[in-house]
TrEMBL record:
rRNA-binding keyword on record: no
Subcellular location(s) per record: Mitochondrion
Species for this entry: Ceriporiopsis subvermispora (strain B)
Role according to the record: NAD-dependent lysine demalonylase, desuccinylase and deglutarylase that specifically removes malonyl, succinyl and glutaryl groups on target proteins. Has weak NAD-dependent protein deacetylase activity; however this activity may not be physiologically relevant in vivo.
Lineage, opening ranks: Eukaryota, Fungi, Dikarya, Basidiomycota, Agaricomycotina
EC nos: 2.3.1.-
Reaction(s) catalysed by this chain's protein: N(6)-glutaryl-L-lysyl-[protein] + NAD(+) + H2O = 2''-O-glutaryl-ADP-D-ribose + nicotinamide + L-lysyl-[protein]; N(6)-malonyl-L-lysyl-[protein] + NAD(+) + H2O = 2''-O-malonyl-ADP-D-ribose + nicotinamide + L-lysyl-[protein]; N(6)-succinyl-L-lysyl-[protein] + NAD(+) + H2O = 2''-O-succinyl-ADP-D-ribose + nicotinamide + L-lysyl-[protein]
Domain free text: In contrast to class I sirtuins, class III sirtuins have only weak deacetylase activity. Difference in substrate specificity is probably due to a larger hydrophobic pocket with 2 residues (Tyr-74 and Arg-77) that bind to malonylated and succinylated substrates and define the specificity.
Binding site for NAD(+): 30-49, 116-119, 240-242, 266-268, 284
Gene3D superfamilies from the UniProt entry: SIR2/SIRT2 'Small Domain, TPP-binding domain
Binding site for substrate: 74, 77
PANTHER family according to UniProt: NAD-DEPENDENT PROTEIN DEACYLASE SIRTUIN-5, MITOCHONDRIAL-RELATED
Keyword Nucleus in record: no
Protein name: NAD-dependent protein deacylase
GO cellular component: mitochondrion; nucleus
Length: 299
């Protein structure tokens, strides 16, 4: 029996025609965007964490139960992100945020990149593009084009309710007690149990600090703004995400439900492909770069 669900198109020329006629464009990015930069996907952040479900370490409850274990997990992720550089897909999206560049591809359009990634590679790419471009942008435009809905891995937040101190800290390691813990576990050694007073502390009040990312069960940053953008979008690019983490998992479907178009850029098929009008399989640093180029060889 054949399915009534239409197969998404991989016609690049047809998609670029849709892109050119779109006026309110958003992109929802996930871990696949950073794969070519050496950042493992969240569920594949394995290696030293083979014996744990990575998802179970990204919750307030996990931090209450074992701050030592959670901080070691995030130390591993911080160290990986510190060594990473943006790849071609990051730069393609960053360039698309520049009005004079985007005008050549999608005249009269607006664009916002909404990333679920916490590795800071998208803002790094955007800063580099802004530094080398002759385009002039107001401060509002620079901030409005990129939303890091799950925060940044380098943010360190105080756990004391009355303090609320948050700092961007890129020290390696973040504190002496975390140094080398990823190597110990990768070598098969038992997980160190680091005393609370040796874990990262708030610079303002001295209380225990936590990774300043959005954990499961917490509210994403700028969620009201994101939902408004989703409601207004006439084109949604889904980049490097399996669309299983809410609320982002529903964004493409919501765009589709109000008559917008959806284009998916992923290495593999996912169950959310049924929401797509276009599907481009392959590394997004290849497919996305070709798609968002001011000129494209569509042969």
């Amino acid at each position: 029996m054949t399915s009534d669900v239409p197969t998404p198109s991989n016609d690049m020329a047809a998609f670029r025609a849709v892109l050119a006629s779109s006026r309110r464009i958003i992109a929802i990015a996930g871990a696949g965007l950073s794969a070519a930069s050496g950042i493992p996907t969240f569920r594949g952040a394995g290696g030293m964490w083979r014996k744990y479900d990575a998802l179970s370490l990204a919750t307030p409850a996990a931090f209450r139960d074992s701050p030592s274990r959670v901080w070691q997990f995030y130390h591993y992720r911080r160290e990986t992100a510190l060594k990473a550089e943006p790849n071609a897909a990051h730069f393609a999206l960053a360039e698309f945020t520049i009005p004079t560049i985007r005008e050549q591809i999608a005249p009269g359009s607006t664009f916002t990149l909404i990333t679920q990634n916490v590795d800071s590679l998208s803002p790094t790419a955007l800063d580099a593009v802004l530094a080398r471009t002759v385009a002039t942008m107001s401060d509002d435009e620079k901030h409005a084009t990129l939303i890091e809905m799950h925060g940044r891995i380098f943010d360190v937040a105080c756990t004391e309710y009355g303090c609320k101190r948050r700092d961007d800290i890129r020290d390696s390691p973040l504190c002496p007690a975390l140094a080398g813990t990823e190597e110990l576990v990768a070598a098969g050694a038992n997980e160190p149990d680091i005393p609370l007073d040796e874990l990262p502390r708030c610079k303002a009040c001295g209380a225990l600090a936590r990774p300043g990312v959005v954990w499961f069960g917490e509210i994403p940053h700028r969620v009201d703004e994101i939902l408004t953008l989703v409601d207004q979008a006439d084109l949604c690019l889904v980049v490097g995400t399996s669309s299983v983490v809410h609320p982002a998992a529903r964004f493409a479907k919501q765009v589709k439900e109000h008559g917008g178009r959806v284009a998916v850029f992923n290495v593999d098929r996912t169950k959310r492909d049924t929401d797509a009008d276009f599907l481009f399989l392959g590394p997004c640093e290849t497919t996305l770069t070709k798609t968002l180029a001011a000129t494209s060889d569509e042969s």
